[in-house]
Amino acid sequence: MIICPSCGAQNEPTNRFCDQCGTRLTGAAPTAPAPTAVSPDQPTALAPSCPVCGATVLPGERFCDNCGADLLATPVASPITPDQATLLAPPSAPQLFCPDCGDPVLPGERFCDNCGADLSRLFAPPPAADTPTVIAPPPVEEPVAVHTPPASEAPAPTPAIPAEGPTMVAPPVAESPAPPVAESPAPPVAEPPAPPATSAAPAVAPIDLIAERARLEALLAAHRDTVAQYEQMAARYPAGSVPTFITAGLDAARAELAKTEAELAALPTGPDPAEVARLEALLAAHRDTIAQYAQMAARYPAGSVPAFITAGLDAARAELAKTEAELVALTGSTPTPAAPAAAPAEPVAAHPAVPTPIATPIPTPPPAVARLELADGSEIILEPGKHEYVIGREDPVSNIFPEIDLTSYGGESGGVSRQHAKIVHTGDQWSIVDLNSTNHTRVNGTRIEPQTPTPISDGTKLQFGRLVATFRIS
Predict the structure, then answer these.
(1) Integer-rounded Cα radius of gyration of the chain
(2) Where are the domains of the chain?
(3) Which residues pair with 63 in a beta bridge?
(4) E strands along 151-299, which residues?
(5) What is the fold of 370-473?
(6) For 88-133, how does the pLDDT look when each residue is reduced to its tens digit (9 = 90+)?
(7) Do 372 and 385 contact (CB within 8 A), yes or no?
(8) What's the pTM value of the predicted model, to 2 decimals?
(9) b/e 295-326 (16+ beta carbons within 10 angstroms → b)
Protein backbone atom coordinates (compact mmCIF):
# COMPACT_ATOMS: atom_id res chain seq x y z
CA MET A 1 0.00 0.00 0.00
CA ILE A 2 1.09 3.60 -0.68
CA ILE A 3 0.37 6.30 1.91
CA CYS A 4 -0.64 9.67 0.44
CA PRO A 5 1.86 12.30 1.67
CA SER A 6 -0.90 14.93 1.69
CA CYS A 7 -3.93 13.33 3.34
CA GLY A 8 -2.44 10.04 4.63
CA ALA A 9 -4.96 7.86 2.82
CA GLN A 10 -3.91 4.40 1.72
CA ASN A 11 -3.77 3.72 -2.02
CA GLU A 12 -3.14 0.67 -4.15
CA PRO A 13 0.50 0.09 -5.17
CA THR A 14 -0.48 0.71 -8.81
CA ASN A 15 -2.04 4.12 -8.12
CA ARG A 16 -0.13 7.14 -9.34
CA PHE A 17 -2.51 9.64 -7.75
CA CYS A 18 -4.38 9.60 -4.44
CA ASP A 19 -7.95 8.35 -4.55
CA GLN A 20 -8.95 10.83 -1.83
CA CYS A 21 -7.26 14.12 -2.67
CA GLY A 22 -5.64 13.55 -6.09
CA THR A 23 -2.05 14.23 -4.91
CA ARG A 24 0.62 12.67 -7.19
CA LEU A 25 2.05 9.56 -5.54
CA THR A 26 5.17 9.19 -7.72
CA GLY A 27 8.25 8.77 -5.50
CA ALA A 28 6.30 8.15 -2.34
CA ALA A 29 7.74 5.34 -0.26
CA PRO A 30 5.32 2.46 -0.13
CA THR A 31 4.58 0.88 3.16
CA ALA A 32 3.73 -2.72 3.75
CA PRO A 33 1.62 -2.94 6.87
CA ALA A 34 -0.27 -6.05 7.80
CA PRO A 35 -3.30 -6.71 5.59
CA THR A 36 -5.70 -5.73 8.35
CA ALA A 37 -3.50 -3.24 10.20
CA VAL A 38 -4.62 0.39 10.18
CA SER A 39 -2.63 3.27 11.54
CA PRO A 40 -3.96 4.65 14.84
CA ASP A 41 -4.65 8.06 13.28
CA GLN A 42 -6.41 6.66 10.19
CA PRO A 43 -10.19 6.35 10.63
CA THR A 44 -11.70 2.97 9.91
CA ALA A 45 -15.09 2.27 8.31
CA LEU A 46 -17.76 0.96 10.59
CA ALA A 47 -18.81 -1.81 8.17
CA PRO A 48 -17.22 -3.78 5.28
CA SER A 49 -19.80 -2.31 2.90
CA CYS A 50 -21.26 1.13 2.30
CA PRO A 51 -24.42 1.67 4.41
CA VAL A 52 -25.98 3.72 1.56
CA CYS A 53 -25.25 1.91 -1.72
CA GLY A 54 -23.88 -1.43 -0.43
CA ALA A 55 -20.57 -1.22 -2.34
CA THR A 56 -17.53 -2.98 -0.79
CA VAL A 57 -15.13 -0.58 1.04
CA LEU A 58 -11.48 -1.02 1.94
CA PRO A 59 -10.10 -0.61 5.45
CA GLY A 60 -9.04 2.94 6.11
CA GLU A 61 -11.49 4.62 3.62
CA ARG A 62 -13.46 7.52 5.07
CA PHE A 63 -15.82 7.96 2.14
CA CYS A 64 -17.42 5.39 -0.20
CA ASP A 65 -15.72 5.20 -3.62
CA ASN A 66 -19.09 4.54 -5.27
CA CYS A 67 -21.53 7.05 -3.74
CA GLY A 68 -19.34 9.24 -1.46
CA ALA A 69 -21.23 8.40 1.73
CA ASP A 70 -19.46 9.04 5.08
CA LEU A 71 -18.33 5.60 6.25
CA LEU A 72 -17.83 6.74 9.89
CA ALA A 73 -21.38 7.93 10.32
CA THR A 74 -24.27 5.80 11.53
CA PRO A 75 -25.09 3.27 8.80
CA VAL A 76 -28.37 4.84 7.74
CA ALA A 77 -29.36 6.45 4.46
CA SER A 78 -28.60 10.16 4.54
CA PRO A 79 -28.64 12.82 1.80
CA ILE A 80 -25.36 13.70 0.19
CA THR A 81 -24.03 17.11 1.10
CA PRO A 82 -22.87 19.47 -1.62
CA ASP A 83 -19.28 19.49 -0.36
CA GLN A 84 -18.83 15.80 -1.13
CA ALA A 85 -16.72 15.66 -4.26
CA THR A 86 -17.12 11.97 -5.07
CA LEU A 87 -19.01 11.47 -8.32
CA LEU A 88 -22.10 9.28 -8.27
CA ALA A 89 -22.44 6.48 -10.79
CA PRO A 90 -24.78 3.50 -10.70
CA PRO A 91 -23.19 0.04 -10.52
CA SER A 92 -24.39 -0.63 -14.05
CA ALA A 93 -22.88 2.58 -15.48
CA PRO A 94 -21.10 2.16 -18.86
CA GLN A 95 -17.29 2.10 -19.13
CA LEU A 96 -15.77 5.61 -18.76
CA PHE A 97 -12.44 6.94 -20.06
CA CYS A 98 -10.26 9.82 -19.02
CA PRO A 99 -10.89 12.83 -21.30
CA ASP A 100 -7.12 13.70 -21.30
CA CYS A 101 -5.22 10.43 -21.61
CA GLY A 102 -8.00 7.97 -22.54
CA ASP A 103 -7.17 5.57 -19.70
CA PRO A 104 -10.20 3.60 -18.33
CA VAL A 105 -11.54 4.96 -15.04
CA LEU A 106 -13.81 3.37 -12.47
CA PRO A 107 -17.20 4.81 -11.54
CA GLY A 108 -16.91 7.20 -8.62
CA GLU A 109 -13.28 8.20 -9.18
CA ARG A 110 -12.66 11.91 -9.03
CA PHE A 111 -9.13 11.93 -10.48
CA CYS A 112 -7.57 9.78 -13.19
CA ASP A 113 -5.17 7.13 -11.85
CA ASN A 114 -2.93 7.58 -14.89
CA CYS A 115 -2.62 11.35 -15.39
CA GLY A 116 -4.43 12.88 -12.38
CA ALA A 117 -6.94 14.76 -14.55
CA ASP A 118 -10.16 15.98 -12.94
CA LEU A 119 -12.91 13.52 -13.92
CA SER A 120 -15.83 15.78 -12.98
CA ARG A 121 -16.04 16.83 -16.65
CA LEU A 122 -17.46 13.41 -17.51
CA PHE A 123 -20.66 14.25 -15.73
CA ALA A 124 -23.00 17.16 -16.32
CA PRO A 125 -22.83 19.41 -13.23
CA PRO A 126 -26.16 20.36 -11.66
CA PRO A 127 -27.42 23.81 -12.62
CA ALA A 128 -26.37 26.59 -10.30
CA ALA A 129 -28.98 28.11 -8.04
CA ASP A 130 -28.56 31.55 -9.61
CA THR A 131 -28.72 30.27 -13.19
CA PRO A 132 -32.25 30.51 -14.55
CA THR A 133 -33.50 27.44 -16.37
CA VAL A 134 -34.55 28.27 -19.88
CA ILE A 135 -37.54 26.27 -21.08
CA ALA A 136 -38.04 26.20 -24.78
CA PRO A 137 -41.54 27.32 -25.72
CA PRO A 138 -43.68 24.85 -27.64
CA PRO A 139 -43.70 25.29 -31.40
CA VAL A 140 -46.28 27.77 -32.60
CA GLU A 141 -48.17 26.58 -35.62
CA GLU A 142 -49.65 29.93 -36.56
CA PRO A 143 -49.00 33.49 -35.36
CA VAL A 144 -51.02 34.49 -32.29
CA ALA A 145 -51.53 38.06 -31.19
CA VAL A 146 -50.06 38.38 -27.67
CA HIS A 147 -51.24 41.07 -25.30
CA THR A 148 -48.27 42.97 -23.79
CA PRO A 149 -49.05 44.23 -20.28
CA PRO A 150 -48.02 47.81 -19.42
CA ALA A 151 -44.93 48.51 -17.35
CA SER A 152 -47.03 49.03 -14.23
CA GLU A 153 -48.35 45.46 -14.45
CA ALA A 154 -44.99 43.84 -15.24
CA PRO A 155 -43.80 41.40 -12.54
CA ALA A 156 -40.88 42.47 -10.34
CA PRO A 157 -37.51 40.94 -11.27
CA THR A 158 -36.31 38.01 -9.17
CA PRO A 159 -33.33 39.01 -6.95
CA ALA A 160 -30.07 37.24 -7.82
CA ILE A 161 -28.59 34.82 -5.29
CA PRO A 162 -25.03 35.77 -4.24
CA ALA A 163 -22.33 33.32 -5.28
CA GLU A 164 -20.35 33.62 -2.03
CA GLY A 165 -21.36 32.58 1.41
CA PRO A 166 -23.16 29.44 2.57
CA THR A 167 -25.16 27.53 0.06
CA MET A 168 -28.83 28.31 0.40
CA VAL A 169 -31.68 26.56 -1.24
CA ALA A 170 -33.79 29.08 -3.03
CA PRO A 171 -37.53 28.73 -2.50
CA PRO A 172 -39.51 27.81 -5.58
CA VAL A 173 -40.34 30.85 -7.62
CA ALA A 174 -44.01 31.14 -8.36
CA GLU A 175 -44.44 31.26 -12.05
CA SER A 176 -46.45 34.21 -13.21
CA PRO A 177 -49.51 33.26 -15.21
CA ALA A 178 -49.16 33.54 -18.93
CA PRO A 179 -50.55 36.79 -20.31
CA PRO A 180 -53.96 36.33 -21.88
CA VAL A 181 -53.95 35.77 -25.61
CA ALA A 182 -56.15 38.17 -27.46
CA GLU A 183 -58.24 36.05 -29.75
CA SER A 184 -59.01 37.94 -32.87
CA PRO A 185 -62.39 37.15 -34.36
CA ALA A 186 -62.23 34.95 -37.43
CA PRO A 187 -62.88 36.90 -40.61
CA PRO A 188 -66.23 36.11 -42.15
CA VAL A 189 -66.01 33.60 -44.97
CA ALA A 190 -67.49 34.91 -48.15
CA GLU A 191 -70.04 32.41 -49.35
CA PRO A 192 -70.30 31.90 -53.12
CA PRO A 193 -73.37 33.48 -54.60
CA ALA A 194 -76.25 31.11 -55.02
CA PRO A 195 -77.03 30.18 -58.61
CA PRO A 196 -80.10 31.89 -59.97
CA ALA A 197 -83.21 29.82 -59.47
CA THR A 198 -84.74 28.53 -62.62
CA SER A 199 -88.32 27.52 -62.76
CA ALA A 200 -87.89 25.24 -65.76
CA ALA A 201 -87.00 21.60 -65.01
CA PRO A 202 -83.83 20.18 -66.60
CA ALA A 203 -84.34 18.65 -69.99
CA VAL A 204 -84.51 14.86 -70.01
CA ALA A 205 -82.48 13.15 -72.70
CA PRO A 206 -84.66 11.15 -75.09
CA ILE A 207 -84.50 7.38 -74.78
CA ASP A 208 -82.76 5.47 -77.55
CA LEU A 209 -85.57 3.06 -78.29
CA ILE A 210 -83.50 0.73 -80.43
CA ALA A 211 -80.76 0.33 -77.80
CA GLU A 212 -83.30 0.01 -74.98
CA ARG A 213 -85.27 -2.61 -76.87
CA ALA A 214 -82.10 -4.59 -77.59
CA ARG A 215 -81.11 -4.42 -73.91
CA LEU A 216 -84.51 -5.61 -72.70
CA GLU A 217 -84.64 -8.44 -75.24
CA ALA A 218 -81.18 -9.64 -74.19
CA LEU A 219 -82.27 -9.46 -70.54
CA LEU A 220 -85.45 -11.32 -71.39
CA ALA A 221 -83.48 -14.14 -73.04
CA ALA A 222 -81.21 -14.41 -70.00
CA HIS A 223 -84.20 -14.60 -67.62
CA ARG A 224 -85.81 -17.33 -69.75
CA ASP A 225 -82.61 -19.35 -69.70
CA THR A 226 -82.38 -18.96 -65.93
CA VAL A 227 -86.00 -20.07 -65.45
CA ALA A 228 -85.38 -23.11 -67.65
CA GLN A 229 -82.31 -24.10 -65.62
CA TYR A 230 -84.21 -23.73 -62.35
CA GLU A 231 -86.99 -25.92 -63.76
CA GLN A 232 -84.44 -28.56 -64.72
CA MET A 233 -82.98 -28.55 -61.21
CA ALA A 234 -86.45 -28.84 -59.67
CA ALA A 235 -87.34 -31.74 -61.99
CA ARG A 236 -84.54 -33.86 -60.49
CA TYR A 237 -86.32 -34.13 -57.13
CA PRO A 238 -89.44 -36.18 -56.31
CA ALA A 239 -92.71 -34.34 -56.02
CA GLY A 240 -92.88 -32.37 -52.78
CA SER A 241 -89.13 -32.76 -52.05
CA VAL A 242 -87.74 -29.79 -53.98
CA PRO A 243 -85.41 -27.77 -51.69
CA THR A 244 -86.66 -24.38 -50.59
CA PHE A 245 -83.73 -22.46 -52.10
CA ILE A 246 -84.53 -23.87 -55.55
CA THR A 247 -88.22 -23.00 -55.38
CA ALA A 248 -87.39 -19.53 -54.04
CA GLY A 249 -84.88 -18.97 -56.86
CA LEU A 250 -87.40 -20.17 -59.47
CA ASP A 251 -90.05 -17.79 -58.15
CA ALA A 252 -87.57 -14.88 -58.20
CA ALA A 253 -86.46 -15.69 -61.76
CA ARG A 254 -90.07 -15.86 -62.96
CA ALA A 255 -90.79 -12.51 -61.27
CA GLU A 256 -87.83 -10.89 -63.02
CA LEU A 257 -88.97 -12.42 -66.32
CA ALA A 258 -92.47 -10.98 -65.91
CA LYS A 259 -91.03 -7.59 -64.95
CA THR A 260 -88.80 -7.46 -68.02
CA GLU A 261 -91.66 -8.54 -70.29
CA ALA A 262 -93.78 -5.70 -68.90
CA GLU A 263 -90.99 -3.17 -69.49
CA LEU A 264 -90.55 -4.40 -73.06
CA ALA A 265 -94.29 -4.20 -73.72
CA ALA A 266 -94.39 -0.65 -72.35
CA LEU A 267 -91.88 0.63 -74.91
CA PRO A 268 -93.50 2.67 -77.70
CA THR A 269 -93.89 0.70 -80.90
CA GLY A 270 -92.47 1.86 -84.18
CA PRO A 271 -89.34 3.87 -84.89
CA ASP A 272 -87.91 6.47 -82.60
CA PRO A 273 -89.80 9.73 -83.27
CA ALA A 274 -86.72 11.82 -82.50
CA GLU A 275 -84.63 9.92 -85.06
CA VAL A 276 -87.37 10.20 -87.68
CA ALA A 277 -87.60 13.96 -87.11
CA ARG A 278 -83.81 14.29 -87.41
CA LEU A 279 -83.71 12.43 -90.74
CA GLU A 280 -86.63 14.43 -92.14
CA ALA A 281 -84.93 17.70 -91.22
CA LEU A 282 -81.73 16.44 -92.85
CA LEU A 283 -83.69 15.57 -96.01
CA ALA A 284 -85.12 19.09 -96.17
CA ALA A 285 -81.65 20.61 -95.80
CA HIS A 286 -80.23 18.41 -98.58
CA ARG A 287 -83.10 19.35 -100.91
CA ASP A 288 -82.58 23.08 -100.29
CA THR A 289 -78.85 22.67 -101.00
CA ILE A 290 -79.57 20.89 -104.30
CA ALA A 291 -81.98 23.66 -105.31
CA GLN A 292 -79.34 26.34 -104.65
CA TYR A 293 -76.72 24.42 -106.61
CA ALA A 294 -79.22 24.12 -109.52
CA GLN A 295 -79.80 27.89 -109.43
CA MET A 296 -76.06 28.57 -109.57
CA ALA A 297 -75.63 26.17 -112.49
CA ALA A 298 -78.54 27.80 -114.39
CA ARG A 299 -76.67 31.10 -114.55
CA TYR A 300 -74.01 29.70 -116.87
CA PRO A 301 -74.35 28.88 -120.58
CA ALA A 302 -74.66 25.28 -121.57
CA GLY A 303 -71.35 23.48 -121.18
CA SER A 304 -69.75 26.35 -119.20
CA VAL A 305 -70.79 25.41 -115.65
CA PRO A 306 -67.67 25.37 -113.39
CA ALA A 307 -66.49 21.99 -112.24
CA PHE A 308 -66.74 22.82 -108.50
CA ILE A 309 -70.47 23.57 -108.91
CA THR A 310 -71.21 20.32 -110.73
CA ALA A 311 -69.13 18.38 -108.15
CA GLY A 312 -71.03 20.01 -105.27
CA LEU A 313 -74.35 19.25 -106.92
CA ASP A 314 -73.44 15.58 -107.33
CA ALA A 315 -72.28 15.34 -103.70
CA ALA A 316 -75.49 16.94 -102.42
CA ARG A 317 -77.60 14.50 -104.44
CA ALA A 318 -75.59 11.56 -103.08
CA GLU A 319 -76.16 12.75 -99.48
CA LEU A 320 -79.88 13.13 -100.19
CA ALA A 321 -80.08 9.55 -101.49
CA LYS A 322 -78.17 8.25 -98.46
CA THR A 323 -80.50 10.00 -95.99
CA GLU A 324 -83.57 8.72 -97.85
CA ALA A 325 -82.23 5.16 -97.59
CA GLU A 326 -81.70 5.57 -93.81
CA LEU A 327 -85.25 6.85 -93.39
CA VAL A 328 -86.64 3.94 -95.41
CA ALA A 329 -84.72 1.45 -93.26
CA LEU A 330 -86.08 3.10 -90.11
CA THR A 331 -89.74 3.59 -91.04
CA GLY A 332 -90.20 1.04 -93.82
CA SER A 333 -91.84 3.59 -96.14
CA THR A 334 -90.44 5.83 -98.87
CA PRO A 335 -90.37 9.53 -97.87
CA THR A 336 -92.58 11.84 -99.89
CA PRO A 337 -90.44 14.02 -102.15
CA ALA A 338 -90.82 17.71 -101.46
CA ALA A 339 -91.96 20.05 -104.17
CA PRO A 340 -88.98 21.79 -105.74
CA ALA A 341 -88.61 25.41 -104.69
CA ALA A 342 -89.34 27.94 -107.43
CA ALA A 343 -86.15 29.59 -108.59
CA PRO A 344 -86.20 33.39 -108.83
CA ALA A 345 -86.76 34.64 -112.34
CA GLU A 346 -83.62 35.81 -114.08
CA PRO A 347 -83.59 38.64 -116.65
CA VAL A 348 -83.75 37.08 -120.09
CA ALA A 349 -81.58 39.71 -121.69
CA ALA A 350 -78.75 39.23 -119.21
CA HIS A 351 -78.79 35.45 -118.84
CA PRO A 352 -80.44 33.13 -121.32
CA ALA A 353 -82.57 30.45 -119.79
CA VAL A 354 -80.81 27.13 -119.32
CA PRO A 355 -82.86 24.03 -118.58
CA THR A 356 -82.29 22.73 -115.06
CA PRO A 357 -80.63 19.30 -115.14
CA ILE A 358 -82.88 16.55 -113.87
CA ALA A 359 -81.46 14.45 -111.07
CA THR A 360 -81.04 10.83 -111.97
CA PRO A 361 -82.85 8.70 -109.36
CA ILE A 362 -80.56 6.36 -107.46
CA PRO A 363 -82.10 2.94 -107.02
CA THR A 364 -82.32 1.67 -103.45
CA PRO A 365 -79.93 -1.27 -103.00
CA PRO A 366 -81.50 -4.59 -102.05
CA PRO A 367 -81.22 -5.60 -98.39
CA ALA A 368 -78.00 -7.34 -97.43
CA VAL A 369 -78.11 -11.11 -96.89
CA ALA A 370 -75.95 -12.45 -94.05
CA ARG A 371 -74.78 -15.99 -93.49
CA LEU A 372 -72.45 -18.05 -91.33
CA GLU A 373 -69.78 -20.20 -92.98
CA LEU A 374 -68.75 -23.13 -90.77
CA ALA A 375 -65.40 -24.89 -90.77
CA ASP A 376 -66.78 -27.97 -92.56
CA GLY A 377 -67.87 -25.82 -95.53
CA SER A 378 -71.59 -25.69 -94.71
CA GLU A 379 -73.49 -22.38 -94.61
CA ILE A 380 -76.36 -21.09 -92.50
CA ILE A 381 -78.39 -18.30 -94.14
CA LEU A 382 -79.84 -15.64 -91.82
CA GLU A 383 -83.48 -15.07 -92.70
CA PRO A 384 -83.88 -11.56 -94.26
CA GLY A 385 -86.17 -9.00 -92.67
CA LYS A 386 -85.40 -9.85 -89.05
CA HIS A 387 -83.44 -7.73 -86.59
CA GLU A 388 -82.24 -10.45 -84.19
CA TYR A 389 -81.00 -14.00 -84.69
CA VAL A 390 -80.51 -16.11 -81.53
CA ILE A 391 -77.73 -18.70 -81.85
CA GLY A 392 -77.85 -21.86 -79.74
CA ARG A 393 -79.28 -25.39 -79.54
CA GLU A 394 -82.92 -26.40 -79.83
CA ASP A 395 -84.51 -27.81 -76.65
CA PRO A 396 -88.24 -28.64 -76.93
CA VAL A 397 -88.42 -29.53 -73.24
CA SER A 398 -87.46 -25.99 -72.26
CA ASN A 399 -89.37 -24.49 -75.20
CA ILE A 400 -86.19 -23.03 -76.69
CA PHE A 401 -86.08 -22.76 -80.48
CA PRO A 402 -83.24 -20.43 -81.61
CA GLU A 403 -83.19 -18.93 -85.11
CA ILE A 404 -79.74 -20.48 -85.72
CA ASP A 405 -79.67 -24.05 -84.38
CA LEU A 406 -76.12 -25.44 -84.18
CA THR A 407 -77.10 -28.87 -82.83
CA SER A 408 -76.64 -30.65 -86.16
CA TYR A 409 -73.28 -28.88 -86.69
CA GLY A 410 -71.63 -30.26 -83.54
CA GLY A 411 -72.99 -27.62 -81.20
CA GLU A 412 -73.58 -29.93 -78.24
CA SER A 413 -70.09 -31.46 -78.33
CA GLY A 414 -68.64 -28.03 -79.13
CA GLY A 415 -69.93 -26.49 -75.89
CA VAL A 416 -72.68 -24.32 -77.42
CA SER A 417 -75.35 -23.23 -74.92
CA ARG A 418 -79.04 -23.48 -75.75
CA GLN A 419 -79.16 -19.69 -75.94
CA HIS A 420 -75.50 -18.89 -76.56
CA ALA A 421 -75.45 -15.54 -78.41
CA LYS A 422 -77.46 -13.42 -80.82
CA ILE A 423 -76.70 -11.39 -83.96
CA VAL A 424 -78.41 -7.96 -84.08
CA HIS A 425 -79.07 -6.05 -87.32
CA THR A 426 -79.81 -2.31 -87.00
CA GLY A 427 -79.75 -0.23 -90.19
CA ASP A 428 -76.42 -1.00 -91.85
CA GLN A 429 -74.79 -2.13 -88.61
CA TRP A 430 -74.34 -5.77 -87.55
CA SER A 431 -73.34 -6.72 -84.03
CA ILE A 432 -73.16 -9.80 -81.82
CA VAL A 433 -74.15 -10.12 -78.13
CA ASP A 434 -73.13 -12.95 -75.78
CA LEU A 435 -76.15 -14.23 -73.76
CA ASN A 436 -74.24 -15.25 -70.62
CA SER A 437 -73.10 -18.46 -72.28
CA THR A 438 -71.21 -21.09 -70.34
CA ASN A 439 -68.26 -21.39 -72.74
CA HIS A 440 -68.27 -17.74 -73.90
CA THR A 441 -68.28 -16.07 -77.32
CA ARG A 442 -65.17 -14.79 -79.10
CA VAL A 443 -64.83 -12.26 -81.94
CA ASN A 444 -61.62 -12.64 -83.97
CA GLY A 445 -60.17 -14.68 -81.09
CA THR A 446 -61.04 -12.13 -78.36
CA ARG A 447 -63.58 -13.03 -75.70
CA ILE A 448 -66.43 -10.51 -75.45
CA GLU A 449 -68.28 -9.46 -72.31
CA PRO A 450 -71.84 -10.78 -71.80
CA GLN A 451 -74.75 -8.53 -72.77
CA THR A 452 -72.40 -6.12 -74.57
CA PRO A 453 -73.00 -5.53 -78.32
CA THR A 454 -69.80 -5.94 -80.36
CA PRO A 455 -69.74 -4.73 -84.01
CA ILE A 456 -69.02 -7.34 -86.71
CA SER A 457 -68.55 -7.08 -90.46
CA ASP A 458 -67.95 -9.26 -93.51
CA GLY A 459 -65.18 -11.78 -92.74
CA THR A 460 -65.35 -11.55 -88.91
CA LYS A 461 -64.36 -14.80 -87.17
CA LEU A 462 -66.92 -15.89 -84.56
CA GLN A 463 -66.45 -18.67 -82.02
CA PHE A 464 -69.28 -20.15 -79.95
CA GLY A 465 -67.65 -22.40 -77.35
CA ARG A 466 -65.36 -24.48 -79.56
CA LEU A 467 -67.45 -24.09 -82.73
CA VAL A 468 -65.89 -21.59 -85.22
CA ALA A 469 -67.76 -19.79 -88.00
CA THR A 470 -67.14 -16.87 -90.39
CA PHE A 471 -69.70 -14.08 -90.74
CA ARG A 472 -70.43 -13.13 -94.36
CA ILE A 473 -72.55 -10.34 -95.91
CA SER A 474 -73.53 -10.33 -99.61
Answers:
(1) 55
(2) 209-266, 275-331, 370-473
(3) 70
(4) none
(5) Tumour Suppressor Smad4 (2.60.200)
(6) 444 455 667 787 887 787 777 778 878 888 877 776 555 555 555 5
(7) no
(8) 0.28
(9) eebbeeeeeebeeeeeebbeebbebbeebbbb
